[in-house]
Amino acid sequence: MPVSRRGSGSVTLPSGQSLTVHHRTTEVGGEDLPHATKKTMADHLRKYESLFTLTPQRMRMIVDAFQDTLDLGLKQPGQVVPMIPTYVFGWPTGEESGDFLALDLGGTNLRVCLVTLKGSGQFEITQSKYRLTEEQKQGDGQALFDFCAECLRTFIEANFDETERQKGINLPLGFTFSYPCSQERIDHGELIRWTKGFGAANTEGRDVAAMFKESLAKYELPITLTALINDTTGTLIASHYVDPSSKIAVIFGTGCNAAYMENIGSIEKLKDLNLPTDAQMAINCEWGAFDSFQHEHLPRTKYDQIVDETSNKPQEQAFEKLISGRYLGEIMRLVICELIDDGVLFLGQETYKLESPYVFETAFLSLMESDPTDELLMIIGIFSHFFAVETTLAERQFFRALARLIGRRAARLSACGIAAIVSKMKYLENLKEGEIIGVGADGSLYNKYPGFADRVHEGLIDVFGDKGKSIVTHHAEDGSGVGSAIIAAMTKIRKDRGLYEHV
């Protein structure tokens, strides 16, 4: 005879809401009475394990192809992975000092920072955030930069008194513009393409630095745009400013990217600039575009193909679409919807709330993986609160396992990108005992997704063996704010000394 039991528990959802979840489990002989049995879900899980599992051998093949792609981007302009020269020359000394502004145009917010560099790797920061609307992201490009200038004016009025403003503060500003641009000098940047859901018109193919300077002039702001940088480049410089072991910077968040310091002699496409070949320059890889057109190397499933084809930028950012926080939830939603259509999940229930693209947030995967309860109360809360469907324990266990597969694949692919740079620069070949290769890492996936960093490290060991243990990722310093300010300081010093003035 079936036995019905009731229970309850409290869960905290991504919105910050705390819910008390009441649930009824109906059992026969200690087993759920499911509309999807444990056996059925286990059979389906094996299918997805084969689809989403990345073997060490496959990872090493991806690393080899990735390294070839990075080399090609340094040789020739206009490549899929553009390997963008940043005109940030060498590492900071750690002794840079003074007041600098930083503007960070991110995926969700606009952030304005006043950074006081104190030398010896020390700094102070004052900042304000301003919310970006979807209309601003998709509207006119010049209007977007006008909004940036308005926020700067508000920030200056709040942080500098009238006497200071009348004296003419004229602060150098580093503008963190985290979208792929081709640069001919450090205060120039022609937008190649929008990413991360942006689509502001009349901007792609134009010099966004010039557009921003026009907005600064319109609002008569006492600011000099000194450097246009990518957040990953800023992360590289900020991380090294605080910890000189840092050689690579990576972002694993709404998007994904990497930066590192390259020998100028290896950047063949810059040979006509007559720069000193023994100097170094930071390279913004823009590696999210890896394998975007030929699709020869990445393990794309049919769900990844749907994500690509239905995105606002189809046939672009193939690597990013397998890794970044913008897409992981959508990949899982597509799997769930397929199982609903096949009559496996939620029989007899209304599932229309799961039909809208991107309604299933990547944060849900994170919560599922970290659910500590035997009954998986967090997963009950997610599906009942957001999608008005009830779940069996077998389904919830399947969802957690599926989230783990998708999240693990993302981390292991991320490790492939890091490994490609490490291999290219031969960082492991001359490493002394006890030395490490520091990788400054930032972004919501790295910082918030449970086990993401550990899985990256596991992937690096799978690629390099025990030598991979010498590659250590750590939470990066604030590249978009502090890093941008440090680069503005480095650029001002370089220009004052008359070094490489034409760039």
Mean pLDDT, to the nearest integer, reads: 89
| CATH architectural label of the largest domain | 2-Layer Sandwich
* Total DSSP helices: 16
The CATH class assignment of the largest domain is Alpha Beta
What are the low-pLDDT stretches, counting only 5+ consecutive residues below 50? 1-9, 21-34
Shape: globular
How far apart lie the N and C ends?
Answer: 80 Å
Proportion of helical residues: 40-55%
Report strand %: 15-25%
Structural class: alpha/beta
Strand segment tally:
16
CATH superfamily of the largest domain: ATPase, nucleotide binding domain
CATH domain topology of the largest domain: Nucleotidyltransferase, domain 5
| Oligomeric description of these chains | single chain
Gyration radius, rounded: 24 Å
Number of domains: 2
Main pleated-sheet profile: 6 strands, mixed
Strand line-up in the sheet with most strands:
4-14-13-12-15-16
EC number: 2.7.1.-
Domain Hexokinase C-terminal: 247-490
GO molecular function, one term: D-glucose binding
Catalytic activity: D-fructose + ATP = D-fructose 6-phosphate + ADP + H(+); a D-hexose + ATP = a D-hexose 6-phosphate + ADP + H(+)
